Amino acid sequence: MVFKKGHKTWNKNLKIQTNTGRTHFKKGHTPWFVGKKDVLKSSRKGKSYEEFYGEEKGKELRKKNNIWKNKTEEEKQILKNKIRNTLKQKYKSGELKSPFANPEILKKAIAKNKLVSQQPDVIRRKLQRRKMSSLEKKFNNIVMNNNLSYKFVGNGKFFIENKNPDFINTNGEKIAIEVYYKKYKMIISSKDKFCIGYDENLLQKYKEDRIKILSKYGWKVLFFDEIQVNEENVIKQLGEKNRGF
Fold it and tell me: Which domain holds residue 65?
């Protein structure tokens, strides 16, 4: 666009800054670096490691940075694993000490983490990213195909205290449904969270825990494992009265 002689631009005499995202300084504002010449002098721009940090520390930093240069992503990953394993060995040998080596600090951290992780808002945020499991999809297809009055809420849409059932009744009845793989509810985990066995008591505890909390609010809980999630059994358990027609 060619401006005619005498044309005034829209921002003439306006005290605004249009070239960057920075806030325009008001009249009388003092920049943070005024009177701090030492801070400006300490800038490393144009200086080598040795000039800025000193001979000994400069060489150490240069050596650390050089190990990452000219390496492929695969080589970098191998190096990261090597460093990680070295640190693990140092922690095990006692050369390095973790603050969690102190039993009192570890106990407090575990208690705090457990308390925070059981908050409904925290659980909801985690579940919002969760997709249906294959078993939940199978159950949901049975519900949809037979027009049963249930809907999926297992992604954090519905909570009773800190419990989030997989499905709930949409006919006004207080019925919640949990679907699960039997073996996953019986896993005994080691400290490293590896499966070291199975215990049927854990499955029973899982059921009792949910029944105890939901029943306080008048809710009935139905459980379906991977064998029980079939069309004939689901319709039989939920009954004709829970059909949507």
Answer: 50-97
